[in-house]
Design goal:
- The protein is built from six helices and five strands.
- It is an alpha/beta fold.
- 40% of the residues lie in helices and 14% in strands.
- The radius of gyration is 15 Å and the shape is globular.
- A five-stranded mixed sheet has the order 1-2-5-3-4.
């Protein structure tokens, strides 16, 4: 199950160019779904349009569906416009290997995007490695591995611009799909 984070009355972060995180999340999720389905995987989405669901509703969708994994797709924001890069969060130990695989693929996807920008290239991997334990409500499910993916930072003007590019969204989607 893919969960494009936010939606409806909750737009999530607002990028430096005014884009809503919920829109970027939905686009990337649709691409991940397409990638996985072309490999024969059955994929469910928590939302397919700009609809709001609570975190509990999203958890329950995963539980009731019998999902093998839950991937909550997001893009980050911070008061510091210099932060960039990708992080993947897990709550249960069984989810850590999935988080590490997705994060590794995302790092590999960002490297060619920033190959001509050494400042951004050097920020791809956070000092702590970018695979993090956190008790986010949406990934607190027992039935299957669940991770929350932060593809990049919408509060960083360079990264926001990249994340609005369809080719970069496609690269993020491929990375998440390959990690799954």
């Amino acid at each position: 199950m893919l969960d494009p984070g936010h939606g409806g009355k909750d737009c999530g972060a607002i990028g430096t160019n005014g884009i809503y995180e919920s829109s970027v999340n939905l686009r990337i999720a649709a691409m991940v779904k397409s990638n996985l389905e072309s490999s024969g995987v059955r994929v469910l989405l928590t939302r397919t349009d700009d609809t709001y669901y609570t975190l509990s509703q999203r958890n329950n969708m995963a539980r009731r569906s019998g999902a093998d994994v839950l991937i909550s797709l997001h893009n980050n924001s911070n008061t510091s416009s210099s932060l960039s890069g990708t992080e993947v969060y897990y709550y249960r130990a069984m989810s850590k290997p999935l988080a590490a695989r997705i994060h590794s693929r995302l790092v590999s996807a960002w490297q060619p995007i920033y190959s001509d920008n050494p400042t951004m290239y050097n920020k791809i991997v956070a000092a702590d490695g970018g695979v993090r334990y956190k008790s986010f409500h949406v990934i607190r499910v027992e039935e299957c591995p669940a991770v929350l993916v932060e593809c990049g930072y919408l509060s960083n003007a360079t990264e926001c611009s990249m994340l609005c590019n369809q080719d970069v969204q496609s690269a993020m989607a491929k990375a998440v799909s390959d990690g799954i």
